[in-house]
Amino acid sequence: MTDERNATDATDTPDGAAALRERIVRHEWDQFQRTNNEGGRAACQGNWPVFHQMRLSQFLTWGVPLLDSYAHDLDEADRIGRNLVTEKYGRMMASTAPDEYARGIEPYIPHLDADRIAHQERVIATQVAWARAFRDRYPKLGEAMRVLTTGEDTHEATSFETYLRGELGTYSDATFALYERMVADLESEGRNLTEETIRNTVELGGFADLDEAEAAQAA
Prior knowledge:
Strand content: under 5%
Oligomer: single chain
Largest sheet: none
Order of helices and strands: HHHHHHHHHHHH
Radius of gyration: 18 Å
């Protein structure tokens, strides 16, 4: 049995999956540190604890095959000189700064074909609906979220929808297919990915559950 097979098997344990999630968050952080922002370095680029909490909250909802695929995306990006975090923020500018995006970003990032975009938009619509339902159920926690839709974007504020569109656009076809399947499975089970992600966030922050976190916001 090859070393590669052994390494893959190791992620099938809870400890292995946890280590893989931590490696992905650290890899994203490293790419984030190499992301240049208009106006200089952003304050959030120096806040590892919050970055770790927010990104780990998302990856705790992912299974090992999806984690493995995205970890490979990050490794491949390094190999060919891409920065997926930089690209994610660049893709968001299609909404928040469209002229700058068309002139200085779109020509230099991978093109997404019409079929991929259509599949992404179906996923995004599902997730925006989940986010809206979460905000209705937990309004105080919802107030701390990004604005919801691309129509609410400004040059200074990026919505949940636009952020998600930017992130999904950086995934390889293999990773996106696994992500799309996860969303479809959650939908068929009547689950809400936003709720599960934010539950992870508040539990990592020391709350027992979403109800306790909501009550603390309301106090």
